[in-house]
Amino acid sequence: MFALIARWVPGLGLVFSVLVLVAYGLKTGAPGNNDPDPTWVAYYANSGNRHKEEIAFLLVGLAGLCFLQFLGSVRGALARAEGEPARITTAAIASGAAFIAIALAAHAVGTSVAWSKSFYAADLTVDPNTARILASLSYLLFVMSLFAAAGMALAVATIGLRMRAFPAWLSWLSVLAAIAGVLGIWGLPSLVVLVWIAALSLYLVWSRRAEPLAG
Fold it and tell me: Does the pTM exceed 0.85?
């Protein structure tokens, strides 16, 4: 039974990508950089907006848990292909751990105003400038997380191309994800990173299904 469960653990990378997309969808409609002060105040005064951000927070936390389990499967696949001392594998896993840690911090900062307003209710008056600063900090942390994701993707691409550990299409998609991570400040390239994680996850599930069950 445990062998069967372990076979599907690599698929948690796909679950991670789906949960992140759902959480992002819940946060659509949040104020933008050019929105006036009343728009920021009205947004956080609406309990429905706050509840959506709180749900998104919980989904991202669950996504982080899924990613860490997925990362263990990635480590196994890379280490088998590279062999000891597995320096590139170590770089990939360190980068992946940094990516998810910074990304979770980014989301926590980004939802801190909503949580604070819900906790303190009428006792808290949302200051638009403070909300803007926290939103900017959240985005900057998110961008930094993508640099770490780029490191992970580059390591996977290196092992994939040098050791032929993965199909060519997946190795080159890893290269593209590394580039997208570096360009993450523009926002849209982050979708490439999510697609890459989902694709790597699906490939690892498929490759595990080809193995005989132990015990």
Answer: yes
**Alpha-carbon distances, residue 40 vs 15, 26, 51, 93 (angstroms):** 32, 17, 16, 39
Domain ranges of the chain: 2-209
41: Cβ–Cβ under 8 A, 6 or more apart, which residues? Answer: 126, 128
Mean pLDDT (10-residue bins), the chain, 215 residues: 68 98 92 92 94 97 98 96 94 98 97 94 87 96 98 98 95 98 93 98 84 45
In whole angstroms, give the CA distance from residue 116 to residue 124.
8
